[in-house]
Design goal:
Elements (H helix, E strand, L loop, with lengths): L18 E2 L6 E6 L4 H15 L3 E8 L12 H19 L3 E7 L8 H14 L3 E5 L9 H18 L16 E5 L6 E4 L4 H9 L5 H5 L8 H21 L6 E7 L3
Parallel strand pairs: 1-7, 2-3, 2-5, 3-4, 5-6
Antiparallel strand pairs: 6-8, 7-8
Helix pairs in contact: 1-2, 1-5, 2-5, 3-4
């Protein structure tokens, strides 16, 4: 059976009104645990913002070195390949930069050293909007996703307060909004109508993940059909998210503006 854990489709828990579409930010920073996480979660949103002039920045926290089902694969080669794939995907989105922090895949911790490094990135880039994993998502198995969420939230708090790391050259910075993807209780949707093709281009750049995450068998004699099926699952997820806010396609988040 193919693993398709990256694309849950179905009802999302909603416990109140769902808002739609922030104003296009001048700058945005998306923080993902692994290469490809941001493209799955919010690739269409990032592409729409970038096309409207937003400076979109990626931070990838881990090296993705465990992202292979081949036990003979060299983790160093896997990491190098995944970095190149993420750079290609970010270009498809229209991103301005990608920063790789290089923590070992599967071993990410929301510790003080990690928080300081991420705080420095936030203060340097000074994004209006930060996007990251929802650390409160229940029943999440992968430790990097949980810890990436905590690290993002903790670094946003540290970045805003001047008494955290006062020695940093870049002063404190308070983003206007935090959008948490893979949200346990989404209350916000960014419209994605017309951006499926760009999101697909970004996702298909992650060729090393075709079998393990995308559910695409790269050795299939009908690879095009496998890609079409994957596209259908991506579109179905976006339709499920969009339905929360009465749009055809969307990407759902938990929105926090009291930062």
């Amino acid at each position: 059976m193919k693993r398709r854990s990256g694309l849950p489709v179905g009802d999302l828990p909603v416990h109140g009104p769902v808002e739609r579409d922030l104003p296009i930010p001048a700058s945005a920073l998306v923080i993902g645990a692994h290469p490809d996480d941001a493209d799955f979660a919010c690739g269409a949103t990032l592409a729409r913002w970038a096309s409207s002039g937003s400076a979109v920045h990626y931070v990838v926290l881990t090296d993705g070195s465990k992202g292979s089902w081949d036990p003979s694969a060299d983790p160093t080669e896997v990491a190098s390949r995944r970095e190149a794939e993420q750079s290609e995907a970010a270009r498809a989105i229209g991103a301005s930069s990608v920063t790789f922090l290089g923590y070992t895949d599967g071993e990410l911790q929301p510790g003080l050293t990690e928080r300081r490094r991420l705080t420095a990135v936030i203060r340097s880039l000074r994004p209006e909007v930060v996007l990251g994993h929802d650390p409160w998502r229940r029943y999440r198995l992968h430790p990097d996703h949980r810890n990436a969420g905590w690290l993002t939230v903790d670094a946003v708090v540290a970045a805003r307060d001047p008494h955290f790391y006062p020695e940093m050259t870049d002063g404190s910075h308070r983003p206007g909004a935090l959008l948490l993807f893979e949200a346990d209780e989404p209350d916000h949707v960014e419209t994605a109508d017309g951006w499926l093709d760009v999101k697909m281009e970004a996702l298909l750049a992650h060729r090393s993940q075709y079998l393990s995450t995308h559910g695409i068998d790269p050795s299939s004699p009908d690879l095009a059909a496998e890609v079409r099926e994957f596209r259908g699952r991506v579109e179905a997820q976006m339709a499920s998210h969009g339905a929360l806010a009465d749009v055809a396609l969307g990407e759902a988040f938990r929105l926090i503006t009291d930062i």
